[in-house]
Specification:
The chain is mainly beta and 773 residues long. The chain folds into 3 domains: 74 residues, Immunoglobulin-like (Sandwich), CATH 2.60.40.1120; 103 residues, TonB-dependent receptor, plug domain (Ferric Hydroxamate Uptake Protein, Chain A, domain 1, Beta Complex); 552 residues, Maltoporin, Chain A, CATH 2.40.170.20. Helices cover 6% and strands 56% of the residues. The protein contains 7 helices and 46 strands. About 2% of the residues have low confidence.
């Protein structure tokens, strides 16, 4: 009997030990893979533990209980405990508000550890409108403007007044997609082939960030595609239709478990457009995968194929734009103008934690495109291959009073491109007029350190050394073309050193103030480096440089329901690139070259504010979240001239306002959610009138845009989720532009410079159907 009792006692103890097992895991940001500190792990309504500074936790748990993981600024995640032999990898998705937690909070309160102005857009932000055109959301960010030349392409982004030096595509900032540079080694950013509809997160670093990211005075645009946010197998079908033949579908398959998370998406988009010869057609295929080898390492894969074709109608002059004409430029129409891209991207990254103090993130990528474009006077056919790698070691050391967090790394990028051009008249192709091969290379070494000091102080310091080389081979230079000027050449720039230094003071747990200074640079393009008329390389040309001074405060109040961010900055740009006319003794212009002449001073204020109003469970509303943002820009030319000739024809523009920058931008809106699942998103944007020429004699008119989206979300059983919605853009029928070509010549005929937006309200509607197996 005694033996039996002993056996029963041992069995009971063994069962208890089996039922209460030790479970460990890591909570991280699903897009950045950064650890989430202070996340709460709960079960049956009880908080079991919180994550440490590295995002790790360890608990005793009952395997039949679901674990609920919550963190401020993130959506809640439900995990079914498996067994102690597995390491739980729990990815959280940032949100602007959360209805899963006990209290509603404002969500993405600014990161108090960053001593600079950084904007972060979540999936909720990106879906506030139709979700297809990034400018509808990006233009809500103070200090940022996105314009476009076609219905879905030719985007130009200016950040704090920098990036408006071109009327085609983007320069002056660095763009990444899932860690792969979209900006090529020459500094040009083409966004025609980016599928904005499947972005899950967008970050904008405003101002020079060269100490970590190399070239780009304007800043950095970091885009991340959607990733599976919960375990299991999911199928999603999205469809949208709207005015002017708009039609979009996404078919998405997702799978996630404790070892991997993969997603495959196919998207098709068609838009007949509101304007003559401006239709757009796009197809996208994307694959995203994260694979967790163990608690120390993660592999991430991204691969995409995209096909894009946007017709070109040219621009309108000011009279046609004022009269709301639906027309285009005759040469574009006769040539059936268009721009087409076929692109592919692939990248692999490996994140490895050697210890709690040392980690490494290394990425390698390859991308390429084939471009064909018919424009007013010609046809271009370009191909390019872009490849490179980036590695960064993360270092973390904690002392009794001081904490050191550092990054040491290097980045390399090379672009090989082949550019052919032909004459084109009345859609009849002419002879070959250009045949260039370009090899562009950029590489940098960098380090940045954050030192957390007592009394809530933190110092951030960084520096990088950046190298640029151009090599150009002109294939039209041959014995059969003796009169052709050779455009071949090679240029190696003097290395550019770009430091950064800032100080941050945490006033409370949710409020911080900061001050900082940073330097940046933007290289000239290959077309500016070579002077084809005299077959020489522009050896004296240097990159544009800038120094930015910034003061700011950020944080949250009222139990984290009110978030705010205010920044005041002064960006001083030197060695701005401008054209210089070369004349003969009689004053006749022989040709033009690019030179570093003049400067620009950008002074501004940026502010945004959001407040989340929560209600009891019995109230009709679950959430009302109003928000506002404001940008003031006082940007002027400083010792800036029309050329560097310094003769009677040289015009001094010093003291004039910078062209293409509206002095005042104001945005407001509200998100409303009811307890029945009905929601409403509204947005109002005001863009002030802005100068569009160096002499400030010509301005683009101010305009206001009103947008709204009404929808209904409902979960049907445990497996089906449904989102049905309808909305409208430009509800007041404002006359506005999607882009203005800057600094055109008004001395002769009125130039064609305006790309018009729809002259009347446009509508859309659709659904998202989600099934979880």
């Amino acid at each position: 009997m005694k033996t039996l009792a002993t056996w029963l006692l041992i069995t009971a103890i063994s069962l208890q030990c089996y039922a209460q097992q030790s479970l460990q895991g890591k909570v991280y940001d699903i897009y950045t893979q950064a650890p989430v500190k202070g996340a709460e792990i709960s079960a049956a309504g009880k908080v079991l533990t919180t994550t440490d500074a590295t995002g790790n936790f360890r608990i005793d748990y009952n395997s039949s209980d679901d674990l609920i993981v919550t963190a401020v600024g993130y959506g809640a995640q439900s995990i079914h405990g498996s067994n102690s032999s597995k390491q739980l990898m729990i990815g959280l998705t940032a949100v602007i508000y959360s209805l899963d937690a006990v209290t509603v909070h404002a969500g993405t309160s600014p990161n108090l550890s960053e001593s600079r102005s950084v904007a972060m857009l979540t999936r909720q932000d990106l879906q506030r409108n139709d979700g297809l055109f990034l400018e509808n959301t990006l233009n809500l960010v103070p200090g940022v403007r996105m314009e476009k030349r076609t219905m879905s392409g030719g985007q130009r982004i200016t950040i704090r007044g920098y990036g408006n030096n071109t009327n085609f595509n983007g320069t002056g900032y660095k763009a990444y997609l899932n860690g792969i540079p979209v900006t090529d080694a020459e500094g040009t950013t083409i966004l025609d082939d980016i599928d904005f509809s499947i972005l899950g997160r967008v970050e904008v670093i405003k101002g020079p960030s060269s100490s970590l990211y190399g070239s780009g005075i304007g800043g950095v645009l970091k885009m991340f595609t959607l990733k599976p946010s919960s375990p299991g197998t999911h199928i999603t079908q999205e469809a949208l239709t709207g005015s002017n033949g708009l039609f979009r579908t996404n078919t998405r398959l997702e799978y996630a478990d404790q070892k991997s998370a993969v997603m495959l998406n196919y998207g098709h988009q068609n838009y007949d457009s509101y304007r003559i010869n401006s239709a757009s057609k796009k197809d996208f295929v994307s694959f995203i995968g994260d694979f967790y080898g163990n608690e120390k390492q993660t592999f991430s894969v991204y691969a995409a194929y995209n096909s894009s074709n946007d017709q070109l109608a040219g621009q309108l002059d000011s009279i046609q734009f004022a009269q709301k004409k639906d027309t285009g430029e005759v040469p574009y129409l006769k040539n059936h103008g268009y721009v087409a891209f076929e692109t592919y991207r692939a990248g692999l990254s490996h994140n490895y934690a050697f210890s709690s103090h040392v980690s490494n993130l290394t990425s390698a990528y390859f991308s390429g495109y084939k471009q064909s474009q018919a424009f007013a006077v010609g046809l271009s056919s370009n191909t390019a291959q872009n490849f490179g790698a980036r590695t960064a070691f993360g270092l973390h050391f904690t002392g009794s009073t001081i904490t050191w967090n550092g990054t040491i790394g290097a980045e390399y990028q090379k672009t090989n491109s082949f550019k052919k051009s032909y004459g084109l008249t009345d859609n009849v192709q002419g002879p070959l007029s250009g045949d260039l091969e370009l090899a562009t290379m950029q590489y940098s070494i960098f380090t940045q350190w954050e030192i957390k000091l007592p009394q809530g102080f933190a110092v951030t310091a960084g520096i990088s050394n950046n190298y640029i080389e151009y090599g150009i081979t002109d294939r039209l230079t041959n014995s059969g073309n003796p009169s052709h000027k050779d455009q071949s050449g090679h240029k190696t720039f003097t290395p550019v050193v770009t430091p950064q230094l800032s100080l941050l003071k945490t006033l409370t747990k949710t409020i911080a103030v900061y001050a900082g200074v940073s330097k940046g640079y933007s290289p000239p393009t290959s077309g500016q480096v070579v002077i084809p008329q005299i077959s020489q390389v522009n050896t004296g040309l240097q990159p544009e440089k800038s120094t930015q001074y910034e003061l700011g405060t950020k944080g949250s109040l009222l139990n984290e329901k009110l978030t705010f961010q205010v920044a005041v900055f002064d960006m001083e740009i030197k060695d701005k690139l401008t054209s210089q006319a070369i004349t003969d003794n009689n004053g006749t212009v022989l040709y033009s070259v690019t030179t570093n002449a003049g400067g620009q001073q950008n002074r501004g204020i940026e502010a945004d504010l959001a407040y989340s109003i929560s209600f009891t469970k019995s109230a009709a509303f679950s959430l009302i979240r109003p928000f506002i943002s404001y940008t003031y820009s006082d940007f002027t030319y400083n010792d800036f001239k029309s050329d560097n000739n310094n003769n009677p024809k040289t015009i001094n523009y010093s003291g004039n306002k910078a062209s293409g920058i509206a002095p005042h931008l104001f945005n407001s809106g509200a998100d409303v959610i009811t307890k029945w699942g009905v929601y409403l998103n509204t947005t109002l944007q005001y863009v002030d009138k802005m100068p569009i020429t160096y002499d400030n004699r010509h301005y683009a008119d101010a305009y206001t845009l009103l947008q709204a989206k009404l929808g209904y979300k409902h979960r049907i059983g445990k497996h089906i989720g449904l989102d049905v919605f309808a909305g409208g853009n430009n509800l007041t029928g404002s006359r506005y532009y999607t882009m203005v070509f800057l600094n055109a010549n008004f001395s002769g005929a009125t130039p064609n410079i305006y790309l018009p937006g729809p002259y009347k309200a446009t509508w859309y509607g659709g659904f998202n159907l989600h099934y979880k197996f």
